[in-house]
Amino acid sequence: MIGGGRIGEALVSGLLQSGFATKDLVVVEKFPARTEELATEYSIRVTDSIADAAEGADVLVIAVKPGDVDVVLADLGKADLDSDREKLLMSLVAGVPTSRYENKLPAGSPVVRVMPNTPMLVGEGASVIAAGRHVKPDHLALAREILESVGTVTVVPESQIDAVTAVSGSGPAYFFLVAEAMIDAGVALGLTRATTTELVVQTMTGSAAMLARSGENAADLRAAVTSPGGTTAAAIRELERGGVRTAFYEALAAARDRSAALGSSGD
Ligand SMILES: NC(=O)C1=CN([C@@H]2O[C@H](COP(=O)(O)OP(=O)(O)OC[C@H]3O[C@@H](n4cnc5c(N)ncnc54)[C@H](OP(=O)(O)O)[C@@H]3O)[C@@H](O)[C@H]2O)C=CC1
Ligand SMILES: O=C(O)[C@@H]1CCC=N1
Q1: By alpha-carbon position, which residue is closest to atom 5 of ligand 1?
Q2: Ligand 2 contacts CB of residue 94 (under 6 A)
Q3: What is the DSSP string of 174-224?
Q4: What is the DSSP letter of 2?
Q5: What is the mean pLDDT of the chain?
Q6: Pocket test for ligand 2, best of 165, 167, 257 (most atoms within 8 A of CB)
Q7: Ligand nearest to the CA of 167
Q8: CB of 68 sitting under 6 A from ligand 1
């Protein structure tokens, strides 16, 4: 795992919780305080040397920010790696296309682009994978096996990954924002923060479970809560007046465009 930040830690933590052995994971992290933190928390080997971690690895997971990818690729290029041992590279980096890795790695290197999300920290991630040019079914199966230990896995063509990033990659932030706003609104109505937080969390959990398990779509489930002339209709009218639906169209388009821009500039 190259990059022990938030998403790198989420995958490491999820993998260990799902039964991966600590000896099978090595993290490369360049920030010393973070190195110490990860090694203590997870009892895994954390090093600042890409060459050290990559030697002997079957899978390299890149979890650095888009702007750091070229440095990582340069370090991998300099490392004297065992060329007989094929390594699958899995990139969790937003925006950066598989071709960017393929152009810098030895010819024929298999690269899988992944868009994960942070709920994998609790085994409920939604990961989407797209195959690079040299990926064979066995490589895709290995990427799937690793990611399925921390949630669901969906395969798409790489042309859809920017849109997927807008939906599920950034998606948890939208739900946390809604939760935050509902909690503040409940407090404004006079409820304690503890009570309103408990109610919001359980309402989100219960609603997501209904959506996942009832077989009904979101529009029908919403209609079932909306009694004629009732409280929900009054609330929905205000949300529509606030432009919430349009805001989501615009927000997801902005995220999709930003993902594409990160791929070309990395900044
Ligand atoms: N957070 C999320 O929900 C999601 C993130 N992603 C993607 O995951 C990637 C990481 O994001 P996130 O975890 O949030 O970012 P963070 O900044 O939390 O983590 C990146 C980590 O990588 C370290 N790093 C940078 N360069 C190197 C290097 N050369 N060698 C080793 N470690 C290095 C950074 O150290 P330092 O801080 O010292 O630079 C930092 O600790 C991004 O590309 C993002 O697009 C994808 C889906 C969801
Ligand atoms: O905000 C970002 O750029 C990353 C990618 C998806 C979620 N977090």
Answers
A1: 7
A2: yes
A3: HHHHHHHHHHHHHHHTT--HHHHHHHHHHHHHHHHHHHHHS---HHHHHHH
A4: B
A5: 95
A6: 165
A7: 2
A8: yes
Amino acid at 171: G
pLDDT of residue 56: 85
The domain segmentation of the chain, as residue ranges, is: 6-157, 171-263
Give me the interface pTM, i.e. the ipTM. 0.96
Which strand (E) or helix (H) includes residue 156?
none
Contact partners, residue 82, CB within 8 Å, separation at least 6: 55, 56
Neighbour-count burial for 184-209, b at 16+ CB within 10 Å, e otherwise: eebeeeeeeeeebbeebeeeeeeeee
What's the pLDDT tens digit per position in 19-32? Answer: 999 999 999 999 99
What is the CATH class of 171-263?
mainly alpha
> Quick check: CB of 127 below 6 Å from ligand 2?
no
Tell me the pTM: 0.94
> Hey, whose CA ends up nearest to atom 7 of ligand 2?
170
Per residue in 163-200, pLDDT tens? 999 999 999 999 999 999 999 999 999 999 999 999 99
Ligand 2 geometric centre to CA of 34 (Å): 20
Q: What CATH number is given for 6-157 in this structure?
A: 3.40.50.720
